[in-house]
């Protein structure tokens, strides 16, 4: 495996592990690109350039996508309050709602209501449709 592909794979793995730790209250803070680059023993600029080259999306964009995937999963699969989900993902609740609405075009509450009206078989399909649309949006400026 070439080094850029290895960095991409490890970066995504670290993000997923970190988000799992966040929702289990095992992580004290939300990591940034600098934290991930230290864990991968590369410079932050090298990490950003490598991820962009390997995926066509910025390192920040991949990170935001993974956070959104976790938010969508928590909204769909748990009874946690929106405030608790926001806090688990280290957002202030009002900022979480603004961020979510900017990307998904629904508030977290509206998203949950939409899912509840679809029934269990359609929830996964709806989430995948949203993630596909979301992955086409520029995330980091």
UniProtKB/TrEMBL annotation:
The protein's name in its UniProt record: Helix-turn-helix domain-containing protein
Pfam families the UniProt entry points to: HTH_18 (PF12833)
Molecular function GO terms recorded: DNA-binding transcription factor activity; sequence-specific DNA binding
Keyword DNA-binding appears in the UniProt entry: yes
SMART domains referenced in this protein's UniProt entry, alphabetically: HTH_ARAC (SM00342)
Domain HTH araC/xylS-type: residue ranges: 9-114
Superkingdom assignment: Bacteria
Keyword Membrane: no
PROSITE patterns on file: HTH_ARAC_FAMILY_2
